[in-house]
Amino acid sequence: MVKNLGSKNSILNQYLSEIRDSEIQKDSLRFRRNFERVGEIIAYEISKVLDYQTKEVITPLGEAEVPVLTNFPVLATILRAGLPLHQGLLNVFDRSENAFITAYRYHHKDGSFDIRVEYTSSPDINDKVLILCDPMLATGSSLMLAYKSLLDKGTPKHIHIVTIIASLQGVEFIKKNFSSANTTLWVGAIDDELTAQSYIVPGLGDAGDLAFGQKV
Is 212 exposed, middle or buried (0-12, 13-18, 19+ CB in 10 A)? Predict the structure, then answer.
């Protein structure tokens, strides 16, 4: 199931416009904060489909019955670009356990590259709700490798994939390769094209560099 939240008018699109804007991008603090805001909005939307139980809360004037989350989801992200988006999710799901995956593009001399995952730090995810975020869903290859690395910690009962901007190719990849899993894709915007180097067009550029500075 694909939830394209940017297809309807909301404040989310204001933040997306600023994230894409090459002038506003020069303010890395605002760029990171806008990633957080998008994460907070998507977390709120995800919260509507989670399981709840009724809790009796003692107030200064009596008792109130309030529906609260039965269990908080596990939050996972791909370093480093995913950190601000992850923080937005964590701002909402503040009692969640967290997982982190290091993945990067290894470039060959002929201009090609492959995705490599070096390290995964994760709690047990067996039969839990997993939210896996990556701000840019280009081909989907890094996301799939990240997910496979998490399976050593168990099989989640539902996967929520969160991305800010996806390509059509990436969306189709998720539909095809996660079809056997109970998966929902939450996306802020879907763009039509990928460059030969697998960058999304119009996209926003290199999210990691814009958030944390250029790497060497």
Answer: middle
Phi, psi of 157 (to 5 degrees): -80, -25
* 108 — pLDDT class (breaks 50, 70, 90): low
Runs of H (alpha helix) within the chain: 11-20, 28-47, 83-92, 141-150, 168-177, 207-212
Q: What is the CATH number of the domain that holds 18?
A: 3.40.50.2020
Domains held by the chain: number? 1
Q: Is 161 exposed, middle or buried (0-12, 13-18, 19+ CB in 10 A)?
A: buried
Q: Which domain holds residue 167?
A: 2-212
Distance between CA atoms of residues 216 and 206, nearest Å: 13
pLDDT, average across residues 50-73: 97
Look-up: residue for tokens 């964590």? 90
**What does pTM read for this prediction?**
0.91
- Give the phi and the psi of residue 96 in degrees, each rounded to 5: -75, 150
pLDDT digits (tens, 9 = 90+) for 24-43: 999 999 999 999 999 999 99
